[in-house]
Each structure stands twice: as C-alpha cells, then as structure tokens.
Design a protein that fits this description.
The protein is mainly β and about 130 residues long. It contains no helices and 11 strands.
Length: about 130
C-alpha cells in the first residue's frame, strides 16, 4: 500500500489541524496505522496509532486529550485530528501502515515501534507558532 500524508501547515498555539493519510494501490483494510513525528535534531516518535478494526487507539502522553485518530475505510484514509496545538508539536508528521489482518486479536493491535510498520508516507510539516 502507498500512503500520502497531507494537511500540515502553520497554525497558532491553541489552534487545530487535521492531517490525512490516504492510501493508494490498495485499501487500508487489515492495516494498523500510526502517525509519527520528527522535530529538528530529535528522534522520530510515535504520536498515535489505530488498530485495523478501529477499536484500539494509543497516543503518546504528550498528546493525550488533544489528538484523535480515526479512519474512514470508504475513503481509504486515516486522519489525525490535532487540537490545542503547542509549539512543541512542531515537526514533520509521517503516517505508516502495518499489515495485521483483522482476525481475532490481530485486528485490535497497533504499535509504538516504527519497525513494525512496512509502508510509509512522505512527511507533512506542522508548524505551531505565533
């Protein structure tokens, strides 16, 4: 599956953005999807992830209560809704997909480890500044 991330931009502190991760080549059925970010001179970190069945989400502590991840399978797209943005959220954001299937527990997992994701989109820049 090929992924295309979009929706980044410049936003003031406290503002909101919605990032999109659109799939092409195949749909996202059976894939867990994660959003990662990398700020200058910092390591890449997993921000949020969503299981293949949509029933499990996980967020890094710094974004809990501010970011939401959800999917629209009909549109082959996973979204990252970001609100209450802070300057420390400034980074390049990437989406990634991991083939898990949906049978039993496999449909309910998503991963913090970037090595579990086999498909990556290009990054989209998010800048939070006044």
């Amino acid at each position: 599956v090929q992924l295309q991330a979009s929706g980044g931009g410049l936003v003031q502190p406290g503002g909101s953005l919605r990032l999109s991760c659109a799939a092409s080549g195949s749909d996202l059925d059976g894939y867990a999807v994660g959003w990662f970010r990398q700020a200058p001179a910092k390591a890449r970190e997993r921000v949020s992830c969503l299981s293949a069945n949509g029933g499990t989400t996980d967020h890094t502590d710094s974004v809990k209560g501010r970011f939401t991840i959800f999917r629209d399978n009909a549109k082959r797209t996973v979204y990252l809704q970001m609100s209450g943005l802070k300057p420390e959220d400034t980074a390049v954001y990437y989406c990634a997909a991991a083939k898990t299937g949906t049978i039993s527990w496999r449909g309910s997992v998503c991963f913090r480890d970037s090595s579990r994701y086999s498909s990556w989109g290009q990054g989209t820049q998010v800048t939070v500044s006044s």
